[in-house]
Write a structure and sequence with these properties.
Strand content: under 5%
Distance between the termini: 94 Å
Helix content: 55-70%
Radius of gyration: 30 Å
Largest sheet: 2 strands, antiparallel
Low-confidence stretches: 1-15
Shape: flat
Order of helices and strands: EEHHHHH
Number of strands: 2
Strand order of the largest sheet: 1-2
Mean pLDDT: 76
Number of helices: 5
Length: 170
């Protein structure tokens, strides 16, 4: 047993406890970095080891049926390369940006009162204000440009004319 007055660290490897040399200074993070590196190596080893074992164990029986395109149990109809409307991507990206904003705003809002009591309220507010402005300005630009309107006017027509049904006839 190591007394509390002396510094030493213990490493458990395979059930055996060994002491690390006390010549290592206690303020270095060698053990922490070594643990992180070992954890990363073990993760890569487990992932690639499973893939390698699967490569050698699985049967290799090629067949034209297996090479055919499979889509939700239904036979494919037409080309599989369909161009989606870009509005789907725009809405998804705006959702992700504001979802991340809320995820970052929630902890800030939870401790804002404590920061105000500690005299850090004004810097915390202005830091959040800059963060919010960096997100709000592009959002206002998208909204003003009409990228968030699901039903958009065709080329050469005003949006209000299309929505009111009074677009000019050719």
């Amino acid at each position: 047993m190591i007394s509390m007055g002396t510094w030493a660290s213990q490493v458990v490897l395979g059930g055996v406890v060994s002491q690390v040399s006390p010549t290592v200074r206690p303020d270095t993070n060698v053990e922490l970095v070594l643990g992180i590196v070992l954890f990363i190596l073990a993760a890569f080893g487990a992932a690639f080891g499973g893939l390698l074992i699967g490569r050698f164990v699985r049967p290799k029986l090629p067949h034209p049926e297996k090479a055919a395109t499979y889509e939700c149990g239904e036979p494919t109809i037409g080309a599989s390369w369909v161009q989606f409307d870009l509005r789907f991507y725009t809405v998804a990206l705006v959702f992700i940006v504001f979802d991340v904003e809320i995820a970052l705003l929630w902890p800030w809002a939870a401790v804002f009162k404590e920061m105000g009591e500690d005299g850090m309220g004004a810097p915390a507010f202005w830091a959040f204000f800059v963060f919010f402005a960096l997100l709000a300005i592009p959002f206002a630009y998208e909204w003003k440009s009409g990228y968030l309107d699901w039903v958009r006017a065709s080329t050469g027509q005003k949006r209000s004319a299309v929505l009111s049904g009074t677009e000019p006839r050719p």
